[in-house]
Amino acid sequence: PNKFSDISAMVALYRPGPMQFIDEFITGKENFQKIRYLHPDLKPILEETYGIAVYQEQCLQITNIIAGYTLGEAEIFRRAIGKKKKSMMTRERNKFIKKAMEKGYKKEVVENIFGLIERFAGYGFNKAHSTCYAMIAYQTAYLKSHWPVEFMAALLTVEAIGASGPIRDEKVALAIEECSRMGIKVLPPDINQSKIGFTIEEGKDSLEGKAIRFGFSAIKNVGEVAIKSILAAREVGGDFKSIYDFCQRVDQQKVNKKVLESLIRVGAMEMFGKRAALLSSLEKIRSKGSQVQKQKVNGQAGLFDNDPTTGFLAEDDIPEMEEFSRQELLSLEKELLGFYLTDHPLNQFLPILLAKRSTRISDLLEENDQKKDKLVSLGGMVTSSRLVFTKANAQEMAFVRIEDDSGSIEAVVFPKIYSRTKECWTKNQIVLIKGRIQIREDSPNLVVDEARLLEKEEAGEVKEERIINWDFEITLPSQLSPRKLVELNKLLKQKQGKNKLALAFVDHAGRIKRLVLPFGVDYSEELEKEIKKIIES
Predict the structure, then answer these.
(1) Where does the record place the DNA polymerase helix-hairpin-helix motif domain (predicted)?
(2) 182 vs 351: CA distance, rounded Å
(3) Domain tally, the chain
(4) Last residue of a domain, which of 399, 433, 459?
(5) What pLDDT band is residue 461 in, cutting at 50, 70 and 90?
(6) Alpha-carbon distances, residue 340 vs 7, 169, 405 (angstroms)
(7) What confidence tens digit (pLDDT) does each residue in 182-215 have?
């Protein structure tokens, strides 16, 4: 778009009915010479939208100019046509043609114009609505362009407090993914840094040197009353020095055990110790903290009241023990935030998925009408699995929810495949799937043809793809972000050719592995520079 009216038209056109005319709209916009009007009198009405009827108001204007209807009569006519009742359509058609011919228009032209109105009546969008939406789109795009970090922090805050449940989780997750794409770091919750909403602080290696700190309001089980109590205690006494200090200073009726457990599990108190250890000793620490508060209320001084880090609580109350596993920590994060923030279980497998041309789930969810029956390969994590039995012969099959770092999709595993792949469908398994896209109720799902555990391939239980020759090699840094891998994947697919490319990376065991892409690329010094730019940016 290069003018405001283009945005308004985009809003009106990007809907199930009028989407079929988007290409025609673009053709007219790019080449005015290709615009054709059924009659010159339609040009003043349709010129703004490059010869395409987009708005309800245009229907009223056409009816008014061509057939002499008043605008009130034109609206009644438009509604009647939109109902698609045969008897009503015939009556209105004859009336329209008669009135237009009385104004001097030829019958053939009038019939064609009526056909335009008839086609349009089912999808026309109110211009006032479209213009309002376009204004919001323009304003938010301006803010995002000029103040990207501030805009995304505000968006995250609004999404976190504006809804609840899966809808909220999905919206916040999408916004965080957009931050990643833009190069904005989103820092995890911190008991001494987080506030109610998402806030901006200094961020090394983040866009404009500014990062976004995760807000308390987006953590499950942490309500407004608890947040205000934490912030009030922090305002009066400064940062919390330890979990002992925290339990003495906050109102434990407002910040109850469930709230505190959630804060620990999500990592907001990681500076005070390992999450597993803090949780194991939490009851004892809260109890002693409550005693200190009662003594202060009663005017009794504690032995160590001048030391805000302990009170009479001993650090020995926190035992030495192993931290939760990486998978357990990520699961806690997913449970309490609704998505993975600091990492994703699938990230360690991204180089392999890239080499195997794995499709991102978000790509499957777009333009789903064009994806039907398409064969795809994707890697993901099983987040849920529902076992059912067929009615015919009571055979086992499953409906499985698969997730990657970009979204989730339902996979259908029919009996024959399920019997061979049962081990793949338990929660948290990382799987590599091949299957066909199917559209059900306008939503895509995946019919599984093949599946295997990706962990087995990593552990060497599945025979590793043998690499014999390649023309050039890319060494991937160990900390390469998912966003950069996605960018690299898109670049290489755009530059396909005859040169074999090997990806070199360090696996979880510290071994250097190389995988040859299943497609060749058109190697050049320019391509090498583009690859380097993505990796080093």
Answers:
(1) 183-275
(2) 21
(3) 5
(4) 459
(5) very low
(6) 34, 10, 8
(7) 889 999 999 999 999 999 999 988 899 999 999 9
8 touches 127 (CB < 8 A): yes
Quote the strand ranges of 342-395, DSSP E. 375-389
How does pLDDT run across 295-338, given as a tens digit for each residue? Answer: 877 766 554 454 544 444 455 578 888 999 888 898 899 889 88
**Per-residue pLDDT tens digits for 495-534:** 888 777 777 776 555 556 667 676 778 878 788 888 888 8
Is 494 within the bounds of a domain? yes
Give how far the C-alpha of residue 392 lies from the chain's centroid of Cα atoms, to the nearest Å: 39
Q: Which stretch of DSSP H or E encloses residue 102? A: helix 86-102
Angle, helices 86-102 vs 71-82, to 10°: value is 150
Say yes or no: 477 and 526 in one domain: yes
The helix (run of H) or strand (run of E) holding residue 350 is helix 350-355
pLDDT of 470 reads 63
Q: Is the pLDDT of residue 245 over 80?
A: yes
Asked whether residue 361 falls in the same domain as residue 267, the answer is: no
Residues spanned by the domain of 191: 147-218
Both tokens of residue 7? 């945005």
Q: Kindly calculate the radius of gyration of the chain based on its CA atoms and give it in whole angstroms.
A: 31
For 304, other C-beta atoms within 10 Å of its C-beta total 14
Rounded Cα gap, residues 462 and 470, in angstroms: 22
What are the CA-CA distances from residue 31 to residues 9, 12, 43, 371 (Å)? 17, 21, 15, 30
Res 156: pLDDT: 95
Encode pLDDT of 400-458 as tens digits.
Answer: 999 887 788 999 999 999 999 999 999 888 899 999 998 877 778 899 999 998 864 45
Within this chain, do residues 10 and 125 fall inside the same structural domain, yes or no?
Answer: yes
Q: Which contacts (CB < 8 Å, 24+ apart) does range 420-428 have?
A: 421/448, 421/451, 421/452, 423/453, 424/382, 424/451, 424/452, 424/453, 425/382, 425/385, 425/398, 425/400, 426/382, 426/385, 427/382, 427/383, 427/384, 427/385, 428/327, 428/331, 428/345, 428/381, 428/382, 428/383
Residues β-bridged to residue 380: 431
Instruction: Provide the pLDDT for residue 312.
Output: 44
The values of phi and psi at residue 366, to 5°, are -90, 145
Element at 296 (helix H, strand E): helix 282-297
Say which residue the tokens 């009615």 belong to.
391
Q: Which residues contact residue 87 at a Cβ distance below 8 angstroms, ignoring those fewer than 6 apart?
A: none
Identify the CATH number of the domain in which residue 381 sits: 2.40.50.140
